[in-house]
Amino acid sequence: MFSWRSNSICIYGRISMQLSERKLRILQAIVADFILSAEPVGSRTISKKYEMGISPATIRNEMSDLEELGFLTHPHTSAGRVPSDKAYRLYVNRLMERYELPEREKKSIYEKLTQNAVELEKTIRHAANLLSEMTNLTAFAITPKQKEDRLKYINILPAGENTVVLMLVAESGKIKNMALSLKGPYTDEALSLLSKTMTYNYRGKAISEILTLNIIKDFETDIEAMGKLAESIMPKFISTLESMLDTELYMDGLTNIFSIPEYHDIEKAKMFLEMIYQKKSFTDVLLSRDDGMIITIGTENAEDIMKDCSLITATYHINGKLVGKLGVIGPTRMKYDKITSVIEYVADNLNAAFSLTGGNEYE
Amino acid sequence: MFSWRSNSICIYGRISMQLSERKLRILQAIVADFILSAEPVGSRTISKKYEMGISPATIRNEMSDLEELGFLTHPHTSAGRVPSDKAYRLYVNRLMERYELPEREKKSIYEKLTQNAVELEKTIRHAANLLSEMTNLTAFAITPKQKEDRLKYINILPAGENTVVLMLVAESGKIKNMALSLKGPYTDEALSLLSKTMTYNYRGKAISEILTLNIIKDFETDIEAMGKLAESIMPKFISTLESMLDTELYMDGLTNIFSIPEYHDIEKAKMFLEMIYQKKSFTDVLLSRDDGMIITIGTENAEDIMKDCSLITATYHINGKLVGKLGVIGPTRMKYDKITSVIEYVADNLNAAFSLTGGNEYE
DNA sequence: TGTTAGCACTCTTGCCTGGCGAGTGCTAAA
DNA sequence: TTTAGCACTCGCCAGGCAAGAGTGCTAACA
Fold this sequence. Notes:
Two copies of one chain form a homodimer. With 363 residues, chain A is of the alpha+beta class.
């Protein structure tokens, strides 16, 4: 795993130094061409299309060297060259040019994200949607998993004869509610009292800390009517708290995978979609990644099933603290320059959207 | 569109009368065999495998007649026969035998559905999940769209300095909440007063009726502090109410489509998934269908894209009144007998699960 | 009159072949 | 060091051929 424009240079600095300027230019042309065409690229193409000023024969020699160094592969003798994961890595770290998003796209990202940026989940969903639309890849976003998130409000509300709704709001903006049915009827007063007591006990405490407490015992010795109520509610309270710590994964653009030649093989497409639908394990993969813009290319991914995918993730911050992740997944042959720009911009704007919410200046 | 085991018989009674008992048996064998094998079925196969007691040659003559009547088609001269939509229709209406679910499966449906049947949405989601697992097809379920659904509780709760959560509970068990940010700070008293006033005004009223009222005006003339609050909240109140009337579509088993030979064509698979992802239009298709167990086969479907799918839907009831739909979609070649049984059983148990909730006998 | 056996016919599938085009690798000359 | 030239390799595609499956027809049989 390497991060973008940071430790990458020192790692690949030496290798790329070994490559002549000309080799780098040729490699760049090959990668760029292959990213667009998905066809093995030949020496003649490079020579003509990219105005290298050298003949195909020379390029062939250089290609041969690049292949020996592991940057190119050869599907068969007389096909063109295809970049290896190593070549993409070098391309991403050193060769690709920064892609500047058109103002129009920037504007549309900003507008879509700041509009109604109140509920964390909805905004995150918008972000995933934006990413997939702008990259034509499968995009995802996860809500933050922050053990430090603190409980802000606890409400228990009537919802039926024997049914109540437990509703929790965390400082991060997460809202969770769960309906539960009680063994018997309740009074509004008891609910209200229990809400108040719980709020008094737990408000401002870190969720993870609350979970370490012996909650059920806390409420054992109280007034009888409330004690009974508490007894029914506490197990759900605990599970709701736990679910607040869970990250939620949103995805969009799943069918984009079909537009990509690499996934015209039905088996591959199926495997891909099934991997993605395994939300739990995919979330774990995302959570285990470092912060910042992280690109893993093909075999750099630990998971077998992702060996011919590239995964790009970035982190977003909320109130400068809570950190979630978003990104895209697609074939190793993707437009790294544009895609990293889009992701970066969306992540930044997500920050901005929520900083705004604090002060409410946008309304 | 024809419903199962009802008007079907009278409609097809005449046609099937024209067919000899032997023709019906042969047709049944062909359909059953094709459903299992997905291969065009030949006369020899029928003769041997299904112990008809007649020679392949005779069967060929009968097949030829059946083809003329439109029940079979011929991909090419020397291939076996393939059932037409018309044949499936006859099979579904008259030929297939009732499939009795094994007790084990019945039990697992019952348990999965009744466990935690408090929140409508979650249970519906479970139902879709169950259907897809048991049929190996793409399953879906929609929540009821019942204009008569009535508002039961209205709560406005603090959720931050300028943020509140609006939470509505309907009689059907639907719970919706929406966070919104206000232009300025508020007091808990104002929130509570507004909650109470709104509850007083709207509780027990049909949601669709509330939407016809001039809600914003209702709150114009009140106490100033509350008036301002109401002004911010009412638009969201209205949109939340509207969203309560919306049906929600849950799906599961989307990748099952890849296991089906008919969808090994990448283009077809893509079209299928894209259709399904168009939640809005797919929901409309579902809503427009009659109640009860409805099977539409291939070209019986109005939508072009579903011309080689079969869609099976059934309705479920809650408290004997609210009606949602669930079902599966897959290739016309599906195990109609088993699948209708599963759907029927899941729908029935959904009813049961929610009838139980009323009395809470299950806890 | 209905049923069956036999046989010719049709069509798919798999396999092989040869020609074409793209692209390389090597060599010798500039 | 660069380049032109040429032989070579390989994938791709079309055509041909044989095997196999299944039908349609006909004539004989019960």
